[in-house]
Every structure is written in structure tokens, then in C-alpha cells.
Amino acid sequence: MRCSTEMTSYVTFMGCIINTEEDATFLSEKGIIENYFGTGEQVSLFFKNTGKNVAFSISKSFLSNVFEGVNEHTSQGCHVQWAGFKYTYFKSPWACLSSCAALILLALTMFQAFFTAYPYFRPPK
Predict the structure, then answer these.
(1) Quick one: which of 7, 47, 86, 94 has the most CB atoms within 10 Å?
(2) pTM
(3) Is residue 41 a contact partner of residue 19, using CB atoms and an 8 Å limit?
(4) Beta strands of the chain (E only): which ranges?
(5) CB within 8 A of 41, min separation 6: which ones?
(6) What are phi and psi of 119, to 5 degrees?
(7) Where are the domains of the chain?
(8) Distance CA 73, CA 75 (A)
(9) How confident is the model at residue 1 (pLDDT cuts 50, 70, 90)?
């Protein structure tokens, strides 16, 4: 019976951690899980579907401290907001590149406006 609850805890925990194909690929590259399915998407779907309709109590799990630690880490702090910002607005390198170009153009426009207005307010003697 204990093995069954440990397996349920593990599968539920991994299902919570692995949300996308990139998550599964990252965990596989770091040696945390071994991918015998072939793609990260198949690993992600496996963990999502395996623990889908299982009754589970986090407080009775041997991984309860890990669940609490992960929830505490991901629920607060600016790193969570920064990660959400990056995920929402900078999914591709082109978005980052175009944002940098826009910032450079904005800075150059501000310099141009300053040097255009400066002689008007401080005329040369």
C-alpha cells in the first residue's frame, strides 16, 4: 500500500511541475527524469494523463514539504512576475530584438529632441 501512495505522490508532483514540452525537455537534459518516450511532449502528456483522476491528499503525502516549498517559492517574489513578463512578451528572440531596437530608437529620439531644444532655451552668446 505504501508503494502505491508514494507512486501517486510522485506522479502528481511531476504532473504539477511538468506543464509544457519545454519543462519535460529541461528536466530530461538536467538528468532529473529519463525520457524513454522520445519527445518532451509525450512525457508531459504522460504525467498529465496518468494522475488525472486520482484522489490525492497533499497533506498525507511524503512529498508534502516539497509541495509546500514549491508553492511558497512560486507564489511570491519579483522573480515570478519577471518570469511571467518574459513568458508573455518575449516568447521569441525576435520580440526581444525588436524591443531593444525600439528602446534604442526612443533614446535617440530623446537625444535629438534635447539637442534641438537646447539652443532655443540657451542661445549661444
Answers:
(1) 47
(2) 0.51
(3) no
(4) none
(5) 21, 24
(6) -65, -25
(7) 1-76, 78-125
(8) 6
(9) very low
